[in-house]
Design a protein that fits this description.
Blueprint: H1 2-15, H2 32-44, E1 50-51, H3 57-67, E2 71-73, E3 87-89, H4 94-108, E4 113-119, H5 122-137, E5 141-148, H6 156-162, E6 165-169, E7 175-177, E8 191-193, E9 198-200, H7 205-217, E10 224-226, H8 236-239, E11 246-251, H9 260-273, H10 279-295, H11 303-310, E12 324-325, E13 331-332, E14 336-341
Parallel strand pairs: 1-2, 2-3, 4-5, 4-9, 9-10, 10-11
Antiparallel strand pairs: 6-7, 6-8, 11-14, 12-13
Length: about 350
């Protein structure tokens, strides 16, 4: 995040001859008490606004609201924007991701039956809860929910619980149900009987790539895999050699976009830092550009006017898309969905 903010300051100053923005950095060390003290210190420097933090957002935003310092936090934590007229959030939340995903799957793809396979950790449980709520809201049906231990690599036991039986073609080519006492042939042609059309996996792309071939091994070979923005590194070229029919996930930032501004940001960030940027870096860059754009307006002469400008419902274009804020300081953004289609035979 810090490297992205520095890049934004350098870019803005270079593009605007009269711009002379200065960045003051304080490390919260992930400690709420230190975070509050850092806000007090930045207030002493009469900063026009604060970007961040992530882990200590609640404590920092509360102090910023008390001191009436505009703050845009970059976090999924709940309850941040409700701390007063000076608090804002520019980050996609689990609820925003899940609503965009479920709306697409139910209304565009026409899917009504879903299953969930999630890690038994805070991230997995949080996204599962949001996904289930959204499926219910949009008249879908959750048929199965199974969990696994974080770091697990063999998902056979969980996958088998999804299967109620198998189909296999008879001599005429028609599909018939495999009898419960009939032994499946090792290299036979089978389709698992499952009650869902899409499987939601709220985990890293690495784990999703472990699960995909195991689904096919158990003859679950005709379902869509749905994930979170953690899957953004799963590009279509890589998918072509995998065992997946179709993948769908929300994306806060498309590093492979053909847009010139995105290409330039990716190139500059890689040149400076030796690695490709992701959503977090991109949204930090956008947030910085947004803040400096507001501060450059001649009519903005106070912190209250900075906060008022952010809350004015104006849309700010950026590499993560167009962004505005609602009256509660929550980000308003249309989340793009990435759809990848391809599958190799096992």
């Amino acid at each position: 995040i810090l490297q992205a903010v520095k890049l934004a300051v350098d870019d803005y100053n270079a593009r605007h001859a009269t711009a002379r923005f200065r960045l003051i950095v304080r490390d919260t060390q992930g400690d709420p008490i230190i975070a509050k003290a850092a806000v007090e210190e930045l207030n002493h420097y009469k900063v026009s606004g604060i970007i961040g933090p992530m882990l200590t957002a609640n404590a920092a935003a509360g102090e910023a609201a008390r001191l009436e310092v505009p703050m845009i936090v970059l976090t999924q934590q709940e309850g941040i924007p409700g701390l007063g007229q000076y608090g804002f959030r520019n980050f996609i939340t689990p609820r925003m991701q899940m609503e965009a995903l479920v709306v697409h799957l139910t209304e565009t793809a026409g899917i009504k039956h879903f299953a969930v396979l999630h890690p038994d950790d805070k991230y997995g449980r949080t996204f599962t809860q949001m996904f289930v709520e959204m499926v219910d809201l949009y008249a879908g049906n959750i048929t199965d929910v199974e969990s696994y231990a974080p770091g697990q690599t063999d998902f056979g036991d969980q996958i088998q619980k999804f299967v109620s039986g198998y189909y296999t073609p008879d001599k005429s080519g028609k599909w018939r149900i495999v009898a419960s006492d009939e032994k499946r042939k090792r290299h036979g042609n089978y389709k698992a009987m499952v009650g869902f059309e899409a499987l939601f996996i709220p985990d890293t792309v690495t784990t999703a790539k472990l699960i995909a071939p195991q689904l096919l091994y158990h003859d679950i070979n005709d379902v869509i895999l749905a994930g979170t923005n953690l899957w953004q590194s799963w590009d279509k070229d890589e998918l072509a050699g995998s065992y997946v029919k179709r993948v769908v996930f929300p994306a806060g930032f498309d590093a492979f976009s053909d847009r010139q501004d995105v290409k330039q940001f990716v190139e500059d960030f890689e040149s400076e830092n030796g690695q490709a940027p992701g959503f977090i870096e991109a949204v930090a860059y956008d947030t910085s550009m947004m803040m400096m754009g507001i501060l450059s307006k001649q009519e903005v002469k106070s912190r209250a006017e900075v906060a008022g400008s952010l809350r004015s419902s104006k849309t700010y274009p950026g590499i993560t898309g167009d962004t505005s804020f609602d009256p509660f300081g929550e980000q308003v953004k249309e989340i793009d969905l990435v759809q990848l289609t391809a599958r190799a035979s096992l």
